[in-house]
Specification:
The protein is α+β, with helices and mostly antiparallel strands. The chain is built from seven helices and ten strands. A three-stranded mixed β-sheet has the order 1-4-5, with no helix packed on it. Strands 3-2-8 form a three-stranded antiparallel β-sheet, with no helix packed on it. Strands 6-7 form a two-stranded antiparallel ribbon. It binds pyridoxal-5'-phosphate (PLP).
Length: 233
């Protein structure tokens, strides 16, 4: 984020921080959502703080922008049925708010469990001698990681994914197509090969279970299954 802000600031570009997977994460003590003009969080059910459906939140340090966003959320109005902006219907549904309010109390504990699971994976993969076969998530020393995903990398990703599925281990590719190659952005004219780092990541990444209720036995099973895949190949 520091680098992105450094590029954007002299050009007067306002940065929107995508903190959707990062509630509670921090860098040098600054929480995710606090690094840019706005930060966006998702309450999609699979997030660390998830509702029973869709929802989200925007953060900002700018009081004027906060007022504007509050109005845009409810049809551009800040008093009933008087509209000074053209807004939208983006209120957080009361039912979702009720669920999120209860779950909010538990997020820190769930995050601690995710972090413990990540440590167990790290140790498990190291003990299994797999560190030269797969790449584990890199965590900068300044970062506090909340592990919405635990994403490993392997050039044999697709075969590994199929093997894990076959052996009952949930896994998913976040994300298979980099942004510049998405069909909806075709008119921007980007082609394969222009952003090689993103393209390589999209071919290699695989997320494995990390949710807070995962037991140490299940983590061992995931590690052993991955070991089995590489012994076989
Ligand atoms: C990094 C990231 N950004 C944005 C989103 C979109 O969130 P939502 O579906 O709540 O709009 C997601 C959700 O999957 C995400 O993981």
């Amino acid at each position: 984020m520091e680098t992105i802000n450094q590029i954007a600031a002299p050009k007067g570009i306002r940065v929107i921080e995508d903190a959707c997977q990062a509630i509670g994460a921090a860098r040098n003590g600054v929480r995710a959502g606090g690094f840019a003009y706005t930060g966006c969080f998702s309450f999609f059910p699979s997030k660390n703080l998830g509702g029973f459906g869709d929802g989200g939140l925007i953060t900002t340090h700018e009081p004027d922008l906060a007022d504007r966003l509050r109005a845009l959320r409810v049809h551009g109005s800040n008093s009933d049925y008087h509209h000074h902006l053209i807004g939208m219907n983006s209120r957080l549904d009361a039912l979702q708010a009720a669920v999120l309010q209860v779950k909010l109390k538990y997020v820190e504990g769930w995050t601690n469990k995710r972090r413990l699971n990540a440590e167990r994976y790290q140790q498990g993969f190291e003990d299994a001698g797999l560190l030269d076969r797969i790449t584990l998530p890199y965590v900068d020393r300044a970062n506090y990681h909340v592990y919405n995903q635990f994403t490993i990398r392997s050039p044999e990703r697709d075969q590994l994914s199929a093997y894990l599925t076959q052996h009952g281990v949930g896994n998913k590719i976040y994300y298979p197509v980099p942004l510049h190659l998405q069909e909806c952005y075709q008119e921007l004219g980007y082609r394969n090969g222009q952003l090689p780092v993103s393209e390589k990541a999209a071919k290699e990444v695989l997320s494995i279970p990390i949710y807070s209720e995962l037991t140490s036995e299940q983590i061992t099973y995931v590690v052993e299954t991955i070991k089995g895949f590489f012994q076989k190949s």
